[in-house]
Amino acid sequence: MMKxxxxxxxxxxxxxxxxxxxxxxxxxxxxYDIQNICKIATLxxxxxxxxxxxxxxxxxxxxxxxTERKFFIRYTGKVTLGVNADNVDIKIxxxxxTVTMPKAEIISEPTVDAISANDIFISPxxxxxxxxxxxxxxxxxxxxxxxxxxxTAKNDSEKYDLATDRAQSLIKSFIEAVGEEIxxxxxxxxxxxxx
Length: 195
Known about the structure:
Layout: H1 3-19, H2 31-40, E1 43-55, E2 69-82, E3 89-93, E4 96-102, E5 105-112, E6 119-122, H3 135-154, H4 157-182, E7 187-193
Parallel strand pairs: 4-7
Antiparallel strand pairs: 1-2, 2-5, 2-6, 3-4
Helix pairs in contact: 2-4
């Protein structure tokens, strides 16, 4: 007699466990899905470089005997390339998916790892009057280095091509996986548009 309620509770438990699967049912492709892929398909460029600065001696009696000082800050910087997801269009006709997207571009301002920027070399100071290198001097040198890093990244067309290829590869893999899930073998065509 006690076996029947146990069997029923086991059946109900199994039905609840297997019936409440969190697997999302894939019905079709959407522009939204492709745009989300573009947001994660980024390429981070890391630069290890040296920011250079010079602090000139001040003027006036207070600055007598100050000497010009040079300083160098070794740092690691990062620039992120990717495809602007807002400019991606998708058209589906039968089993052909046409993705029109711009080429990769810089999608974040250059950043400098603050911890790496603690490695500073400063030329010797005058023993008579100090010409201190302060945080503002260091900040200016880092800003100049960031601008140089940005220019280097802007001129590296090979990296832009690599970032574009990476985005296209991820999009194509995603489309093919969705097609496999819904039983459609998609042919993916990419077109490039001006951003």
